[in-house]
UniProtKB/TrEMBL annotation:
The protein, known as: YcfA family protein
Organism listed in the record: Desulfobacula toluolica (strain DSM 7467 / Tol2)
Higher taxonomy: Bacteria, Pseudomonadati, Thermodesulfobacteriota, Desulfobacteria, Desulfobacterales
Keywords, in A-Z order: Endonuclease, Hydrolase, Nuclease, RNA-binding, Stress response, Toxin-antitoxin system
Record-linked Pfam families: HicA_toxin
A GO molecular-function descriptor: mRNA binding
Family: Belongs to the HicA mRNA interferase family.
Signal sequence residues: none
Length: 64
């Protein structure tokens, strides 16, 4: 079962990312180390497989 968009954002914020807002259904998050990611979709939508992979990759990069 795929995660929801709100869960991906929560995971990123827990890893230290800051939500810079966005336009429409897009949210821009950035980590103090310079790692950035854009998540698209409404909070209650199911996340796409590629979005889940990208979130995990960005969290891993932010820990280096």
């Amino acid at each position: 079962m795929p995660k929801k968009i709100r869960q991906l954002i929560k995971d990123l914020e827990k890893a230290g990312f800051i939500n810079r807002g966005g336009k429409g259904s897009h949210r821009n998050l950035i980590h103090p180390k310079g790692v950035a990611i854009t998540i698209s979709g409404n909070l209650g939508d199911d996340a796409k497989h590629y979005q889940e992979k990208e979130v995990q990759l960005k969290i891993k990069r932010s820990k280096k």
